[in-house]
Amino acid sequence: MKLPVWIGTSWKMTKTIAEARAYIEHIATAELPAGIQPFVIPAHTSLAAARDALPAESPVLLGAQNAHWGPEGAGTGEVSMRMVGDAGARLVEIGHSERRQHHAETDETVALKARAAVDAGLMPLICVGEPVDVHEAGEAIEFVSSQVRAALGRLSSTEVSGVLIAYEPIWAIGEHGRPATPTEVAPVVSELARVAREVSGGVGCRALLYGGSVDEANAADLLLDANTDGLFVGRAAWTPEGFLRLAAIAAEAAGVP
């Protein structure tokens, strides 16, 4: 397995500022295993508080759940890439299926956001995934490959090498999602790795992550896949104890002492 192993979580629409600070202080004082790249993506309201709770030497990266591609100014309810960077984000989540479904995000706006993130010095975390009907029709590979090509379309081959890609099949995420099996995940992630190498001149993206009903029971098996560089976790990592247990599982799966 390629090191480091990425382990991260998005808190979605949860946690007050006080709750966010307590979570970050807990993991900041824990001994994180070697070979792990941890990241946490709070809600916008808690991002600066999470930043202030992290010691300067902490390996934990913070991210934003969304940001706009445009320049600052008119854009009620939006935040710019520069603004989330100022609040502590090192990466920005782009194109989550909930954003695509409920906030009219398209492949084109995902590409615009990826471009804006790189221009602002942030690492794009591009989410892709197919709905259940596409999965059942056996067309997942074509669907997500198209999403990835579109998302990376405004980046140079060199810039692609700094991008994170998270494969999150829509049917597997959320409270009522069905956990995907490693045999369902492997061929899709393999194709995404191939596409990333193709558009980056052979280098590939920075890391390929899997997300979708990940928990302590299936994390190790999912990490056995040769092309999966880490896990993007939801509810199972919404407590600091859960996050730390998953980090330990990832380190063990990678053979890190």
CATH fold call: TIM Barrel
**How much of the polypeptide forms β-strand, as a percent range?**
5-15%
Series of H and E elements: EHEHEHEHHEHHHEHEHEH
Cross-sheet strand order for the largest sheet: 1-2-3-4-5-6-7-8
Going by CATH, the architecture would be: Alpha-Beta Barrel
Return the domain count. 1
Distance, first to last CA: 14 Å
**Strand tally:** 8
Q: Could you report the average pLDDT, rounded to the nearest whole number?
A: 96
Low-confidence sequence ranges:
none
Oligomeric state of shown chains:
single chain
Specify the CATH homologous superfamily: Aldolase class I
Largest sheet: 8 strands, parallel, barrel
Number of helical segments? 11
Q: Kindly provide the name of the CATH class.
A: Alpha Beta
Shape: globular
Task: Please state the structural category.
Answer: alpha/beta
Helix content: 40-55%
Describe the structure.
Helices cover 41% and strands 15% of the residues. By secondary structure, the chain is an alpha/beta fold. The mean pLDDT is 96. The chain has a single domain (5-69, 78-253), classed as Aldolase class I (TIM Barrel). Helix 7 (140-151) runs parallel beside helix 9. The protein has an eight-stranded parallel barrel with strand order 1-2-3-4-5-6-7-8, surrounded by five helices.
